[in-house]
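Blinded run. Sample ID left blank on purpose so nobody reads anything into the name before looking at the predicted structure. Input follows.
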Amino acid sequence: MIDAVLDWYRSSARDLPWRSPEASAWGILVSEVMLQQTPVVRVLPRWLEWMERWPAPADLADAPTAEVLRAWDRLGYPRRALRLQDCAREIVRSHGGAVPRGEQSLRALPGIGEYTAAAITAFAHHDRAVVVDTNIRRVLARAVRGRALPDRSYSAAERTLATQILPAGRERSAAWNQAVMELGALVCVSRTPRCEQCPLAEDACAWVAAGSPAPQEDTRRRQSFEGTDRQLRGRIMALLREHGVAAPAALTALDPTDPARVERCVRSLLADGLAVEESARPPGDGELGALRLP
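Blinded prediction complete.
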């Protein structure tokens, strides 16, 4: 199974700049943060611009926060941009400007969780780490467990399986993590898997051998984005990126039928540090002033 996936990857992997041998550990860290819940096609132009502008942690650490948020553009979840800058500052402050080695040290950085620490360990430092994202979980669920989809949330059984199947050697384990992730992204996709292109389909996939049974239950219901607070927050951020400042009237115009919703979203952006009020309001005023990027 492992050899088949590695052979497939050598001939079918996408040519992405953060996979280049010349890619820095910082560049790989940035790519992993950007790629969280965001497709490659959207990340690629932002990553290239970002690395041209801030090629090292020290460059981002010193950048004005407003410029960082503008550069993040529409990648989604702009708090990730703030955490990435916090991460750069901590790398400069505590690690001499170099991305630290080891999952424990990486997880001590702002915004770096279990998956990202493991991915940096494997892809940047070529050390052995159990990397498990949605794509890997789906491949292992089908190929090994014979299920159409992984568990609803990352389970102990999935963690044990991923740990057991990880090759022993450093380079081989890193290559496996990358290859099986790519297989899940390009071939073993969620809704319409391309089994005819899969190196495991013929004799190494338990799900195909079982007749490709449907999921036992619908575990992948998606909440509509239209009309959500997250959508409105995104529109407010887009207004700030474009104009630098947004007057109360411009904010209210984003949803004139529900000013309370606008206020709720504005206050959440203020609480997250993604915006600041242009001028202080009197205590207890209850109204919002103009907003600007921090």
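Unblinding after everyone has recorded impressions. The chain is about 50% helix and 0% strand.
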